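Box 3.1 — From sequence to structure: Phospholipid/glycerol acyltransferase domain-containing protein
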Amino acid sequence: MTGFRSALFLVLAVLVTVPFGFAVPLAGLLGYRPGCATAKLYAACVIWLARLCCGIRWEIEGQENIPERPVIFMAKHQSAWETVFMQATFPPQCWIVKKQLLWLPFVGWGLMGIRAIPIDRSSGTSARDQIVEKGAKRMAQGMCVSIFPEGTRIAVGKRGRYGLGGALLAAKTGAPVVPIAHNAGEYWGRYAFRKHAGTVRVIIGKPIETAGRDAPSINRELEEWIEARMREMNPERYADA
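Predicted structure (token representation):
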């Protein structure tokens, strides 16, 4: 039954993605707000389909911690679920993404419609410079910036290296960092076809103030907060992380 429900979700998600793959970039031609609003509707459809077909529900702690001004969202990355959740739940935002994603039909077009910032992760300093330069411009326009500091999806129970790009952007702009921990990988594994029913727990932390601080100290506080929450949610998984 899990396999059938997962296949049904995949088919319906693809059918939804195709029209929105055209709608999001077209709306983006009118400005980032129409583009983000259309992407938000798309993400809401996908996360609803995951709930309907696969039984993936969610509960949120700390939603009141999202300020009304541009911030930098930095989250644990375990699956695709948190990507659509954040797009469906948070204010207008652009994503820091690997440049290869822009080559994907429909999905890549949608990312362009929400002013995503593509980077070449292998370029090191150059990638961080792009995050800081382009991220600051997006925030000056009124957008939030969303980043997965570990850079790629990390298996449940594991801990990736937290890159400095987002912290450098925070240090330059003085914008607060909103940390996010969750256990979506328990139900929607990284790159997994089979999705399992359950309730994802999402914890949104209080904004980390960054004005006058350097990037390494911001990054340390972010990492310590996220990883502490992961151990609290799943102590048996993260005992050796």
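Summary of the box: Residues 2-233 form a domain with the Glycerol-3-phosphate (1)-acyltransferase fold (CATH 3.40.1130).
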